[in-house]
Amino acid sequence: MSIVSAESAGPPGPPGTAPSPDAAAAPAGRAPAPLAPAARLLPALGAVYRAQLSRARVARIPLLFVATFQSVGIMVLMRGVVDGGSEARAVVAGASVLVVAFVALNLLAQYFGQLRAAGGLDHYATLPVPPAAVVLGAAGAYASFTVPGTVVTAVAGSVLFGLPLVHLWVLAAVIPLSGAALAGLGAALGLLAPRQELATLLGQLGMSAALLLGVLPAERMPGPIAYARDLLPSTYGVEALARTFEARPDWGAVGVDLAVCAAVGVVSLAVATLAYRRAAVR
Amino acid sequence: MVRDLVKTYPAARGRRGAPGTPEVRATDGVSLDVGEGEIFGLLGPNGAGKSTLVRQLTGLMRPDSGSVELLGHDLVRHPERASRLLGYLGQESTALDEMTVSLAAETTGRLRGLPAPAARREAGGVLDELGLAPLADRALRRLSGGQRRLACFAAALVGPRPVLVLDEPTTGMDPVARRAVWAAVDRRRAEHGATVLLVTHNVIEAETVLDRVAVLDRGRVIACDTPMGLKERVAGEVRVELVWRAGAPVEVPEVAALRSLAQESGRRWVLRLAPDQARAAVAAVTGGAAFAALDDFTLATPSLEDVYLALGGDTTKGLVKA
Asked: For A18, which of B36, B83, B224 is closest by C-beta distance?
């Protein structure tokens, strides 16, 4: 049974209302109402980014501390095993990028997984905001959260292992590019995972992979593991940073590594944007 | 300019449930027309399909069939236009929980397409209007449930829209906050001719604020009229509520006779009776042995809940009366 209530006239209260007496004729021949302007990409991205950064002040600072503490702890442990050379460079670079993996990949995957499971995506989906603005704003904010921890880890590691600090400016490229790659991956995992628990699990696994494959020196790895290491986007951030600890960095190779990060970032953020669009309208 | 607003859902159907559960038609051929400037309510018990209907209207869910037209726009073909026509208040606040009240409102305004200064100005205005200014710098998740709901309502109002869709806006609010919400809704209708679609399962609210109500039950519209018009359908009846001290004295014959007409819930009996029957029932229970067992009784004219029950709604899931 369905009751079409068109005949029941308009509302009794409001003045100036023109009730539609004939529902059949009503939909046709009427100029559509003007649409309110949609939010443009960059202002919307800025608004999401700013809002996400403010969330960090409330909720994320303990986790950022944990991320940094974990990386510094790993370096202290490895200090007893490794004594300089390429292994020391790999350990410091791996521990630094691990901070990025912890926050951008693991925490962002959890955030999007939780947002999706709890219906929080509805809020964004009912606003005229480009999907890319939501994904890029959140990814950018999470990548930004990693800056202090990564810098602290890299400096502490360099001091601990006696590595040169002169080329650490390269972090200005390593953090955003590996941040883009890992945040894109985290966002895509969080939005594609069918359940929230799975998003959390995938984020944790991704971070564990970044930890094991990034911090441990590559030369001692068996073949298949080395291939897995090559598949992990964080590896290229680690390699780029490790190269700059050498006395004469091979800047060409650093550039190639960073270009891989950038490419993975573009692809994974595009996938995450598509995943968002799919998750938002069910 | 907004002209008449027509929303029609012939044979709109809910989606299939998760694999393994039987197909559920969350909305089963719902058709409604809502006029411009109207405060229109969707009333029904939990699971009646109200939220599904709203999700289809806001472009969050595509109906299997049927059409949704909003201010001359076909929202089934262009669901993305919904966000540029309507402001939506959902049941979840997850996306805003960790922001401060003022940032949540301002950010929502910016994402609704306002430039930053305008968003800030409008957010400030809405917070003042709703009495939220003292809480502006508190994070939403540190607020009480009702305050958080009010903050989400504020966010829904920033950035003007000709249509507001509010899914149970006053859940958990104290009377002051409720009044602020209804005043704000009325103001938007009076000043901008806004149309409001309101989901509720609160009967008292439905009676006092709505121009018209559609009663939903199991995915279907079982009635659609003004609250007065709906109540007239059961105008000949009187609602009698009896509350017994311990158990009902069924050894009294008059009480035993009433039992077959009563809806029992614990010590409370609810009866809908013709006026003379009601008089007889009251006479029976206020005298003799029955009166000694009686804790309280009320006689009332029918409410929308009675209408809902009289229309054949599911009697095991009564509407919330708050």
From this structure: B36
Name the residue with tokens 């009751």: A3
Residue with tokens 């960090």: A56
Contact at CB, B92 and A120, closer than 8 angstroms: yes
Sign of CA dihedral B191, B199, A51, B126: positive
Q: Under an 8 A CB cutoff, do B211 and A12 touch?
A: yes
Query: Phi and psi at residue B222, in whole multiples of 5°?
Result: -100, -10
Q: What is the residue-wise DSSP string for A51-92? A: HHHHHIIIIIHHHHHHHHHHHHHHHHHHHTT--SHHHHHHHH
**Which value does ipTM take for this structure?**
0.78
Q: Rounded to the nearest 5°, which phi and psi values hold at B139?
A: -70, 145
Interchain contact, A129 vs B226, CB within 8 Å: no
What is the per-residue pLDDT across A94-110, written as a single tens digit (0 to 9) for each?
999 899 888 888 889 99
Residues 259-288 in B contacting A (C-alpha not used; CB under 8 Å): none
Contact assignment for B35 to A11 by CB distance below 8 Å = yes
Cα B318 vs. chain centroid, distance in angstroms?
Answer: 13
**Separation between Cα atoms, residue A39 and residue B296, nearest integer Å:** 58
Does the predicted model carry a pTM greater than 0.90?
no
Most confident option among A225-239, B117-131, B224-238: B117-131
Beta strands in B82-190 (DSSP E): 86-89, 163-167
Q: Centre a 10 Å sphere on the Cβ of residue A1 and count the other Cβ atoms it contains.
A: 10
* Residue in A23, A37, A127 closest to B108 by CB: A127
- Inter-chain contact B94–A119, Cβ cutoff 8 Å? yes
Six token digits for residue B240: 């009698």
> Which residues does chain A have within 8 Å of residue B86's beta carbon, measured at their own beta carbons?
126
Residues shown for chain A: 282
List B residues 294-313 in contact with A (Cβ-Cβ < 8 A): none
